[in-house]
Amino acid sequence: QMQFVESGGGLVQPGGSLRISCAASLIDFSLRHMAWYRQAPGKQREWVASILSSRTPAYADAVKGRFTISRDNAKNTVYLQMNSLQPEDTAVYYCNVLGNDRSWGQGTQVTVSS
Length: 114
Hints:
Layout lengths: L2 E5 L2 E3 L5 E8 L8 E6 L6 E6 L5 E3 L7 E6 L4 E6 L8 E7 L10 E5 L2
Parallel strand pairs: 2-10
Antiparallel strand pairs: 1-3, 3-8, 4-5, 4-9, 5-6, 7-8, 9-10
């Protein structure tokens, strides 16, 4: 059974930075391709970034150059470093196994506002 616990969200001013974390409970974490998603109010959940088991990253165009995804296999944890945050980045952020649409965690709220 998969479980994900996201943390580290908060309120930040435009242009600021935040690092969010996701502790994953699942078998063979190091072999899994992981991803971050986000859901803004009134919108569907969207893919933000992913990191393969090989550590190869990929990013949505909206965050490319500003966000960095990383993983610590020893801690079964995925991170998302978010820089140059903008109001349009406001959303609840979730992590999951790439392509999996079940077992969502509670997410972590990121609010970008002055």
